[in-house]
Design a protein that fits this description.
Elements lengths: L9 H12 L4 H18 L1 H14 L10 H5 L2 H17 L5 H21 L6 H8 L19
Length: 151
């Protein structure tokens, strides 16, 4: 969305959009999004249309309990993992073949999985159980899920 506004206005637009995520409840989030869209429509209609089109996906976190909103909209764990993979591959430098890269990255991913499984939890079981108490209603109830996993 920031690509839809001039560079000089990007900090203002980013700050304006951040106010949506700082709201205390679902109704306030949706009301603030309407205010943001109105403010953008006046100055940057192209950006407002872009944000309006993405509004449903952007506000999907509000269907979950307030306690896990930050974990849902944050991508810090992915960024940390990407940084670790980058650091490890930079140390090696040049790989002899594709399988060597896959082995190294696979080892980093396996280590991270073990660490999250055994030591730390990004979302505790209590929060995940609470999230299941509030099922997300699908836009279409005609969704057919596969009964088998295929390769």
């Amino acid at each position: 969305m920031l690509s839809q506004v001039p560079k000089s206005a990007q900090p203002w637009v980013a700050t304006l959009l951040r106010t949506v995520f700082e709201q205390p409840d679902t109704d306030a989030v949706h009301a603030q999004m309407r205010h943001v869209l109105d403010a953008l429509e006046a100055k940057f209609p192209k950006a407002a249309n872009h944000l309006d089109a993405a509004q449903h996906d952007l506000l999907a976190f509000t269907a979950f309990p307030r306690e896990i909103w930050r974990q849902i909209w944050s991508n810090n764990p992915q960024e940390r993992l990407n940084k670790e993979i980058r650091r490890r591959t930079d140390v090696v430098g040049i790989f002899p073949d594709r399988t060597a890269v896959i082995r190294l990255v696979g080892a980093v991913l396996a280590k991270q999985n073990d660490e999250w499984t055994e030591a730390r939890r990004y979302m505790g079981r209590e929060l995940l159980a609470k999230a299941r108490l509030h099922p997300i209603e699908s836009e279409t109830d005609d969704t057919v899920l596969p009964t088998e996993l295929t390769a």
